[in-house]
Amino acid sequence: YAAQRTLFNDVAAWTSSDIIFDVGTREANPQSGAATYVTGSYFRVLGLRPTLGAGLPVDANDADHAPPLLAVISHVLWERHFDRSREVIGRTMKVNGVSVTIVGVAPRRFAGARTGGSQMRIWLPLGARPQVQQTNSTLTSYDDARLGLAARLQPGVRRDQAGPIVEAIAARAAR
Fold it and tell me: What predicted TM-score, i.e. pTM, was given to this entire model?
């Protein structure tokens, strides 16, 4: 989809998994939540800016990552576990036992491109998924993970113009 530059200005992909997170305070025991692994363009494609912090770098897509990883946390997680402290930026927490550094807080009421699921959510680079989920998955096979996609059309391009290309790519991927 991203290669279709005449149709799409920008494309984002994501996949989600359940996690256990630990914010590192005595009052908060490890808790369950959700991680969404995203391409660096995810927030930009959705037209969102973090409430706090710079957010994930645009080049965070698929690079190999060593701890600490960079993460954006949900507004709810920020409120409940960090008391809306502005000093949350740069703090570390554990996600499935892996250290992550908080670089942003998502806007209030934003829980991801798909509705539903845990409000206790964290967004990490797509390339961090194998490390955090402790899997050898490289996202190269259909069974590794299903990716959600969102795109912004180029100026002047209508949805009906993009439809046949999107359908052709989807049909090829399904095969």
Answer: 0.88
